[in-house]
Every structure is written in structure tokens, then in C-alpha cells.
Amino acid sequence: MFKYLYLDDLKVDQKYRGKHIGSRLIKAALNEAHQLKLQGVYTIAQDNNLSACLFYLKNSFEIGGFNNRDYRGTAQEGKADIYFYRDCK
Description:
By secondary structure, this protein is an alpha+beta fold.
């Protein structure tokens, strides 16, 4: 029913950042989504993680949603999730 592959917890070790590894991982995920005949890839980043949000925007993701209730009643209350989507091309 849902036509997007979920990219869960993409992280690149700090010493390897700036070498386009994250972008290559996204490209691999898009290729996998395409092979599975899915619409594209989506992921979630916390609103206070500016570097992750900017990374996804730089890699042609679009904001598709915002959830400010995920963390209610938890130690992370006040944070929110931003949903990022990128279609296969």
C-alpha cells in the first residue's frame, strides 16, 4: 500500500563525512526502491538535527510531513519529527 522505501537511521562516521558517502548510500537506496517498483525513499529527522535536515534537502529530498506529537510524555518532549521524501527518477 505505501509506495516508499524507509531509510532508517543513516549515519556516517564523522571522520568520513564530506566524502559523499551519505549521498552514495541514498543513491543505493533509490536504486533499490526503483528495483522494487516503489515511488521512492523516505526518512525522518528530528527538527533539532539541523545538519541532518540540511543534508536531506541538499540531496533533493522534499519535506512531506511534520509530527510534533511523537515525543510527548518522553524525555525528548518538545522535539518533533520532519518527514523527508525523494522520488525515484
